[in-house]
Amino acid sequence: MAKLSAAYYTLLTRWHTLTGYKYFWPGFMIAGLGFCMAASTFEFLDLYLQLILIYVGINIILTVSLNLINGYMGEFSVGHAGFMAVGAYIASLLTVHVFPSGVQNLLFPLAILAGGIGAGLIGFLVAIPSFKTRGDYLAIVTLAFCMIVKSVLENIDAVGGPRGLLGMEKLTTLPWVFFWTVLSVWVIRNLVYSNFGRGILSIREDEIASDLMSVNTRQVKIIAFVVSSFFAGIAGGLFAHALQFINPRMFDILKSTDILIMVYLGGIASIAGSIIGAVIYTILLEILRPLGVWRMVLMPLMLVLLMIYRPQGIMGMRETRLFKPLRDLVTEKLWRKKKKEAANAAP
Amino acid sequence: MPLLEISGLTHRFAGLCAVSDFNFAIEPHELVGIIGPNGAGKTTVFNLITGVYCASEGGIKMEGRELVGLTPHAITKRGIARTFQNIRLFKELSVLDNVRVAHYGQISYTPVEALLHIGRFRAEERRITSQTLDLLSVFKLDDSAGEKAKNLPYGLQRRLEIARALATGPKLLLLDEPAAGMNPNEIIQLMEFIGWIRKTFSVTIILIEHQMRLVMGICERLAVLDFGATIAQGFPADIQNNPKVMEAYLGEEAVL
């Protein structure tokens, strides 16, 4: 037993040295992209497995971005599916109607980006009521937003109305999903570990105090909502081109609930938690598929048990070292070293 | 020119007049106390100065510039920082982050630089972190930099709150009942501590307090509030002998 724990410890230190290495993230990106490309060209993962991995990636993007609002900022947004819908429709309209059919593969990232930017602009609008409204009341605002998006889409014939939109090519491939997932995780981690991110956290802790400590709370809220909805839009675009069919009903409150469950399963205010939550929830739903309808009994039951025995979620308020920036630790270390030297030099 | 000049400040909460016609001026490097019984409107004055409430009437001028109508963070940027009667730290954040947040008004990188960790971001973060650690070490808090603020003992939490306020780079520091929950011994330490802060950081200080011992000991001037009205202003010795003040406040206190 002791041997085992010693081995585990060595492994852990090795892992930490590896992840602390300067080129870890670029290396991880290249290796992951290489693997994904190989997997989709040589098909050593079957298509079903690839599809599940695509959904895992999309759900990670959705969960991490929602965690920015619900976990880090401590608000309760239930409108994430609405932002997703905006991204999905913009990206789909671009690839189906605007872009010439020959070069869609090349222009696909542009379509996704446009979807993200569109959703980000809408997120800016939703951030405005959040200046004055908090907690349950903001939840109602986001709920209303979600319903508005759905009914607007249902009533525009140009985008298919309630029938939905189809004709997208299957452009969402594993490498693309991997790329966007890593990008969104990286950007949101960067935000969280900047002074804007600390501003977001301080709003959760005590909004008035944070305003009095020179945090521009309005600016912080806008940043949080825009970044969060931008990535929801990206996920929506990827989702639309993975399923090749979207209709407004897909993006109702139930979809938001799905994302909320992943956030709270993984734990609030944790990037590692969001990833774990999204992976577990998505894969578990697939594993339990043979159970048919009972799956929808078992999953909620598990959630009830989780909330009773571990209300903070798997990683609530904690972060693995992998996502903490090395810079802080290094700066602190150097500072302590300097202080020690100064203390030694003084007498 | 006075650092802060308050003229005719009045604030009503739906009919209740919390502060009425409050006039007050403070010169740079002064240490002034605002005292008064419970519910006299002392904290409301602080909330009005810092922009938490918007004054119904009257003006507040900082170095000749009007503050009424500005948002709290804009006022903090002009150089006014405060602490709170009941400690309001960011409990789940580390001690280091509590103070680093307060640099928000001074950061020079844009959100885009923060999102991508490019440009000025790295140098600026390094600067903020080491400045914060310097400040924490002055307050002897650097050893618990990684600790969550809620896990600190009460006295250290008070100290951290002052450190956090100073991190915003204030010219004027507002201390709201810094001696709340302290015993006489700790109050004596606190008196020295406040004097030391004033000298080290060369700030002007306004102090709200209940503890007579503290205000009489360190304040150069006093303003006494009762039911929102200013009943006396002057030197501590004069205030102590003012019959109006005795009636409203010290009379009770002397018995206790």
Highlighted features:
heterodimer; A: 347 residues; mainly alpha; two-stranded antiparallel sheet; 14 helices; 2 strands; 1% strand; globular; B: 256 residues; alpha/beta; six-stranded mixed beta sheet; four-stranded antiparallel beta sheet; 10 helices; 10 strands
Helix percentage of chain A: over 70%
Radius of gyration of chain A: 22 Å
Oligomer: heterodimer
Please trace the helix and strand order of chain B, writing H or E for each element. Answer: EEEHEEHEHHHHEHEHEEHH
Gap between N and C termini of chain B, in Å?
40 Å
Spatial separation of the terminal alpha carbons of chain A: 49 Å
Shape of chain B: globular
Structural class of chain A: mainly alpha
Low-confidence stretches of chain A: none
Main pleated sheet of chain B: 6 strands, mixed
- Tell how many strands the DSSP assignment of chain A holds: 2
Strand content of chain A: under 5%
Run of helices and strands of chain A: HHHHHHEHHHHEHHHH
If interface size is counted as residues with C-beta under 8 Å from the partner's C-beta, which chains form the largest one? A-B, 37 and 48 residues
Continuous helix count of chain A = 14
Rg of chain B is: 19 Å
Give the rounded overall mean pLDDT of chain B.
90
DSSP strand (E) fraction of chain B?
15-25%
* Class per helix and strand makeup of chain B: alpha/beta
Main sheet characteristics of chain A: 2 strands, antiparallel
- What is the global morphology of chain A? globular
Question: Short description, anyone?
Answer:
The complex is a heterodimer of chains A (347) and B (256). Helices cover 74% and strands 1% of the residues of chain A.
Description:
The complex is a heterodimer of chains A (347) and B (256). In chain A, 74% of the residues lie in helices and 1% in strands. The model of chain A has no long low-confidence stretch (mean pLDDT 90). Chain A has a two-stranded antiparallel sheet. Chain A has helices at 2-20, 24-42, 47-72, 80-98, 104-127, 135-154, 174-192, 195-205, 207-212, 217-243, 253-266, 271-287, 295-309, 326-345; strands at residues 165-166, 245-246. In chain A, α2 (24-42) packs antiparallel against α7. Chain B has 256 residues and is α/β, with parallel strands linked by helices. Helices cover 40% and strands 23% of the residues of chain B. Chain B has 10 helices and 10 strands. Chain B has helices spanning 42-49, 72-77, 95-101, 111-116, 121-138, 154-167, 184-200, 212-218, 236-241, 243-255; strands at residues 4-13, 16-26, 31-35, 57-62, 65-66, 80-82, 172-176, 204-209, 221-226, 229-234. In chain B, the strands form 2 sheets. Chain B has a 6-stranded mixed beta sheet, with helices on both faces. Chain B has a 4-stranded antiparallel beta sheet with strand order 2-1-4-5, covered by helices on one side. In chain B, α3 runs parallel beside α6 and α7 runs parallel beside α8 (212-218). The radius of gyration of chain B is 19 Å and the shape is globular. The model of chain B has no long low-confidence stretch (mean pLDDT 90). The A-B interface holds A 187, 190-191, 194-199, 201-202, 204-206, 208-219, 223, 227, 317, 325, 327-328, 331-332, 334-335, 339 and B 50, 52, 71-73, 76-77, 81-82, 84, 88-93, 96-97, 100-107, 109, 111, 114-117, 121-122, 125-126, 128-130, 133-134, 137, 142, 145, 164-165, 167-168.
